Amino acid sequence: MSQSRIGKRPIIVPATVKVEIAGQLVTLTGPKGTLSRELRPEVQVQFENGVIQIDPVGDSKMARSLHGLSRTLVANMVEGITNGYRKVLEINGVGYRAASTGSTLTLQMGYSHPVEVVAPAGITFTVPPGPRPSVVVEGIDKQLVGDLAAKVRSVRPPEPYKGKGIKYATETIRRKAGKSGGKKK
């Protein structure tokens, strides 16, 4: 029986995290909040001595494919409730602005109207002051943070000629040359 290299790795749980396993439901409570996830019946979860171990049930193709995925999902939950996740988005362009009030982010991106993005529970928007406008999306659920950051970016994706729009702070925009001024033959 071959096992996933990622799935075999144990998940070390910090002392500040409380783990509850009821059948296939894994519930983790930590300093930043509580997350729970129902795992598929093709994998089994064990918690002993501060370590979570995930093993496949049987040797079916589905069990082998869910082994590493399940381990990564639980490891992301542990990371989220201890440290949290954050995505930083930069806004480039004259007159492009962002403001956050409560759980609503208001973007002025050159359209005829401001665009509002509402955060679900557990996600916060922060607009740090400074010369360059940017938006920080923070939360404990990695999937929600990534999805919401992608939704904010899709309001005005960066264009390749001047680089105007919303981009991730770690993203590099490949720039294109504009029109050439030469005559056509």
Give an account of the 3D structure.
The strands form four sheets. A four-stranded antiparallel β-sheet has the order 11-12-7-13, covered by helices on one side. The protein has two domains: 5-82, Alpha-Beta Complex (Outer Surface Protein A, domain 3); 85-168, Outer Surface Protein A, domain 3. The chain is elongated. The chain has helices at residues 5-8, 61-82, 142-153, and strands spanning 11-12, 18-22, 25-30, 33-38, 43-48, 51-56, 85-92, 97-101, 104-108, 115-118, 123-126, 134-139, 165-168. The protein has 185 residues and is an alpha+beta fold. It is 21% helix and 36% strand.
Q: Could you give the topology of this structure?
A:
Elements: H1 5-8, E1 11-12, E2 18-22, E3 25-30, E4 33-38, E5 43-48, E6 51-56, H2 61-82, E7 85-92, E8 97-101, E9 104-108, E10 115-118, E11 123-126, E12 134-139, H3 142-153, E13 165-168
Antiparallel strand pairs: 1-6, 2-3, 3-4, 5-6, 7-12, 7-13, 8-9, 9-10, 11-12
Short structural summary:
The chain is α+β, with helices and mostly antiparallel strands and about 180 residues long.
